[in-house]
Amino acid sequence: MSYRAPIADIQFLFREVFPLDRLFALAPFADFDQAVTDAVLEQGGRFASEVLAPINQTGDREGARLTEAGVVMPASFKDAYHRFVADGWNGVSADRAYGGQGLPEVVGAALSEMWQSANLSFALCPLLTQGAIDTLALCASPDQKGRYLGKLVTGEWTGTMNLTEPQAGSDLGLTETLATPVGDHYEVRGQKIFITYGEHDLTANIIHLALARTPQAPAGTRGLTLFVIPRYREGSPSSRTANEVRALSIEHKMGIHASPTCVMGYGGMAGAYAEQLGGLHQGMEQMFIMMNRARLSVGQQGVGIAEQAFQAARDFARNRIQGRDLKTGADRVLIIKHPDVRRMLLTMAAQTEAARTLTLWTFFLSDLAHHAESEIERSVSGARVAFLTPVVKGFATEMAQEVTSLGIQVHGGMGYIEETGVAQLYRDARILTIYEGTTGIQAMDLLGRKLVRDQGQAWRALEADIRRSLQSPELGAVRHLVEPLRKRVDDLHGVVEHLLQEYPNDPYHCGGSAYSLLMLFGTVLGGWMLAQSAAAAARVQSESGSQPFLERKIRIAEFYMALLLPRADAYAKAAAAPSPSIMTMDDSQL
Ligand SMILES: Cc1cc2nc3c(=O)[nH]c(=O)nc-3n(C[C@H](O)[C@H](O)[C@H](O)COP(=O)(O)OP(=O)(O)OC[C@H]3O[C@@H](n4cnc5c(N)ncnc54)[C@H](O)[C@@H]3O)c2cc1C
């Protein structure tokens, strides 16, 4: 299946919707500008189309295998990974102090979208390494940073995230893996399941970040500490000592076959050598650094795979001949002429663009949260990123389910046949609403942590910005898009105020509302993103004349407001008054 990176769409966002010039004016990014970013995106797009996309289907068929020598990756993945590292893609937005190139996070995120579109199984590996880099950069001692960060940044080593255990999935407070102090380090014993890239043969070492419980630690998440557990204790392959951590088995899964999902065993004769990372019993807080970043990146996986599904469906619809033209009666027309096929294609395109804009904007805010000059801007941006993270993760990954499913529908029966590759996209996308916290967990995070905990403060600041933007002269140019949006912002306001009041009295009611609330936020914020994009397109057209690319932005936003934004009404109703059946029915009646 071919893939063409949506470079023009990304450049449009970076120039016209949330201009990266804001970032290039900050000291850490002073060496970069739009031209450098364009060149990076072009090269990244070529890498995605020419190196990663061609091995996506073969990787799916071949899969990762567990052999006596350990986990073996498809040979094509090894070659691609070595090129990925040699070309310097792993560290594009990592800190220069550790050998990264220091580009803004949002540029790295745009590249990551391309890797995810082209090959989700492959791209999961650098996604997790990035999470490990972020966590080590914030929590590790100078000595640990010196030993681990450089090789993770180049990609010579990869990183993993070891949380899940058989009895501890969404509820990590049930973690049992035990870390016993021995001199200056710990010995870890236990088992983790579902560990992505827990073992592979792409690199000489793998650095596991794992949550474990020390003896006599408090129960629940408060007793968890974070540990670094290297696969090999010394870096150099010639002198390395294998640590007591290995893949015991790998899962046979519905999708992402070339991404090894491992059951990891810690400790054999001795425990696995482990170093404490950050504070004792602060593991959960620190792991959240990794998880929050990973949650945004998983949202972006949703965007990436949706883009690929859209491209495949559009290309198919431009070639498949079937049926008559409804109006002219012309026989043997391309299916792209049928209104219902166009509805599906536009649903795919509009959802993908809405989620892309929201996701990249959140990464842009994350750059400001880390690097803005004023303390106040850093803190406001940080609060907004925290607020948006469950929305991005939940909405973009749920959207990917619909879009990859429509991708099959546009293909008709051929979509159900593996050969076309769109069935793989559907299978691969299915994990996205599950790992890094299910949609249900994102919804409860949004309601319980992001709204109730600060009594709606972060949301009200965002709401004020949305209302200001809807009144701005720029959006005045697309008034027909603003009006339907304003009504839904009012509805959203009402639902949030209602739930803030209800939460202490009726948590069941709120738990039943949480999913609808998350989807309401995603749908309204997605609409706001597309309205801004359409307004920017109208502005550029008024300055430099009509262009099909810009006209398309406006048409897509119009379609969204007409056919997709109205979903917000159903979500608002369901969030405000979920059915009493949810909690009044007896378990046996379900
Ligand atoms: C392919 C794959 C790769 C993975 N990679 C990793 C990895 O690299 N590292 C890692 O640590 N883990 C990984 N995981 C594990 C993944 O993060 C968990 O599967 C996920 O968090 C859900 O946990 P669970 O499977 O135990 O489901 P459960 O927690 O048992 O959830 C089952 C259902 O109950 C719901 N539920 C549970 N608790 C609540 C609640 N409090 N409120 C409302 N609803 C609730 C859930 O939403 C879900 O619908 C991976 C899993 C898979 C399948």
Give the DSSP E fraction (strand runs of 2 or more residues): 5-15%
Output the CATH homologous superfamily of the largest domain.
Acyl-CoA dehydrogenase/oxidase, N-terminal domain
Say which molecules are bound, naming each kind only once. Answer: flavin-adenine dinucleotide
Low-pLDDT runs of 5+ residues are: none
Q: What features would you describe in this structure?
A:
Residues 466-586 form the Acetyl-CoA dehydrogenase-like C-terminal domain. Pfam families: Acyl-CoA_dh_1, Acyl-CoA_dh_C, Acyl-CoA_dh_M, Acyl-CoA_dh_N. This protein has 590 residues and is an alpha+beta fold. It has 3 domains: 7-154, Orthogonal Bundle (Butyryl-Coa Dehydrogenase, subunit A, domain 1), CATH 1.10.540; 158-285, Butyryl-CoA Dehydrogenase, subunit A, domain 2; 448-590. The chain is built from 21 helices and 10 strands. The strands form 2 sheets. Strands 3, 4, 5, 6, 7, 8, 9 and 10 form an 8-stranded mixed beta sheet that branches. A hairpin with a 2-residue loop joins strand 1 and strand 2 (70-72). Helix 1 (7-17) runs antiparallel to helix 3, helix 3 (34-52) packs parallel to helix 6 and helix 10 packs antiparallel against helix 11 (375-411). 51% of the residues are buried. The model has no long low-confidence stretch (mean pLDDT 96). The structure holds flavin-adenine dinucleotide (FAD).
